[in-house]
Design a protein that fits this description.
This is Polysaccharide pyruvyl transferase. By secondary structure, the chain is an alpha/beta fold. The chain contains eleven helices and ten strands. The strands form three sheets. Strands 7-6-4-8-9 form a five-stranded parallel sheet, with helices on both faces.
């Protein structure tokens, strides 16, 4: 199994869905898309073994890959949708009192870097715009790469935001928090709005989780950001309906269903047959 398949606990979620060992998920036969992007679902420098299957979320991703001369795509839908099926009530009820939780406030996601690239931008400008835009409390979500940078964490904490992180995605099978998406789902279901300074995976997850969404603010820059997919400018050209402070929820739901591949979600037996090596019966 390629270690990218473990990112965010994706392999663990799908193994649980199939009734397999979720703590030590069996090998996935191929490469699983681990985040939304405007290319073929993968980093443009990602190397593949010849003949490997590329498990992607939507046919749009596969079409873009075919246009680049790549092959062996299999559309399976986003692991997020499989998690939501398994956790229909997570986040909707208080864990101690079991009383329903009323959604309030905004969960804001900062565009993030990764181990090989840091982000730069005007954090104070973004803070000011969030204050001008959002009603109610703001919870600020930092990816672990930014959460571990004290100056960024302090900027949003000192602004009065509740600053959180959902954990690490892991690398080479080390440091993966298999509950990463569980925690994110619970948080999204407790907030009325989910916002970000770039259209990103989190926005589509927020729509799927029933939240209002918004995209605004300084989009930030990342060191070494690969220009081959067109960057944030291309995103704004292709999805103008999804890059606003007020986004029509019906439109957002239609786009989200398409990008996450909702109609391609498979039953457990099919996922087990297609994806997990040696676990066909």
């Amino acid at each position: 199994m390629h270690h990218h398949n473990h990112y965010y606990g994706h392999a663990h979620i799908l193994a649980r869905y199939c009734g397999l060992d979720e703590e030590n998920p069996p090998r996935i036969r191929g490469y699983l898309q681990h985040g939304w992007n405007v290319g073929d679902g993968y980093n443009p420098t990602h190397e593949f073994f010849d003949g490997a299957t590329r498990f992607v979320w939507s046919p749009a991703v596969a079409r873009r890959g075919y246009a680049l001369g790549r092959r062996n795509y299999h559309v399976v839908g986003a692991p997020w949708l499989y998690l939501m099926q398994q956790e229909p009530t997570l986040g909707f009820f208080d864990e101690e009192t079991e009383e329903p939780v009323e959604r309030e406030g905004t969960l804001f996601f900062l565009f993030h870097g990764w181990e090989g690239g840091k982000i730069t931008g005007d954090h104070q400008r973004l803070i000011d715009e969030i204050r001008e835009t959002e009603e109610g409390p703001v919870t600020f979500s930092l990816y672990y790469t930014e959460y571990n940078r004290p100056e960024i964490r302090a900027a949003y904490h000192d602004a009065g935001f509740d600053v959180i992180s959902f954990g690490g995605r892991g690398f080479s099978y080390v440091g993966t928090d298999p509950l990463f998406l569980y925690k994110q789902l619970a948080a999204m279901r407790r907030h009325k709005r989910v916002a970000a300074n770039r259209l990103s995976t989190a926005i589509f997850y927020g729509v799927a989780a029933g939240a209002e969404v918004a995209v605004y603010g300084d989009p930030m820059l990342m060191e070494g950001e690969d220009p081959r997919f067109g960057g944030n400018a291309r995103v704004q050209r292709l999805w103008p309906e999804m890059t606003r402070k007020v986004i029509d929820q019906q439109t957002a739901a239609q786009i989200t269903d398409h990008e996450l591949g909702r109609r391609f979600v498979m039953p457990p037996r099919e996922i087990k047959r297609v994806m997990f090596d040696g676990s066909n019966e």
